[in-house]
Amino acid sequence: MRLLVQEAAFDLGAEANGFAASLSGSGAGAIVTFTGVVRDNGGTLRAMEIEHYPGMTEKAISAIMDQAMARWSLADALVIHRYGVLAAGEPIMMVATAAPHRADAFEAAEFLMDYLKSRAPFWKKEIGAKGADWVAAKDSDEAALTRW
User: Fold this and answer.
1) Which residues pair with 77 in a beta bridge?
2) DSSP string, 64-114
C-alpha cells in the first residue's frame, strides 16, 4: 500500500506501470486505475488551488486505504493526491487497486474515489476570471458514500 500527497505532477503511465510491476507473485489478476483531472466547467477557470494539512491528510487517507485493504481482497493499493495550484486538465489524483478478481479491484477503487471526493481533508478553491470561490461539497458526492 502506498500513499503520496504531493505538490509535484506525476506521470500516470509511469505510476501505473510501476504499480503493476510491483505485483509480481501477489496473485493479482486485475488492476484498476482512475485519474481525476481539473475540469473547467464553462471555460473560465484559470486554476484550482488545493490546500491540506500535512500529517492529518495522510493519516485520514491511510485509514481509509486500510479499510479498503481489509474489506476487499486487494493485493495492493495506491493513492496519489496533489495539492497546490493546478491548471485545467492537470491530474489531481490517481487511485490504483489490484486484486485477484476484477470485482474487488473495481469496488475498492470506487470506494477510495468516493472517500477522496467527499471526506479526505482537502480544500479546493477555483480561481476564475471573476475571482476565487471555495468549492462546496455536493449532495451527490455525499450520497455516493451511502452505498458503502
Assistant:
1) 97
2) HHHHHHHHTT-SEEEEEEE-EEE-TT-EEEEEEEEESSHHHHHHHHHHHHH
Domain CATH for 33 = 3.90.1170.40
Judge whether residue 56 has pLDDT over 90: yes
- How much is the mean pLDDT over the chain? 94
C-alpha cell at 72: 476487499
Q: What is the CA radius of gyration of the chain?
A: 16
3-state secondary structure at position 44? coil
- Cell matching residue 62: 491511510
Work out how many domains the chain is built from and give that number.
1
pLDDT tens digit sequence for 9-30: 999 999 999 999 999 999 999 9
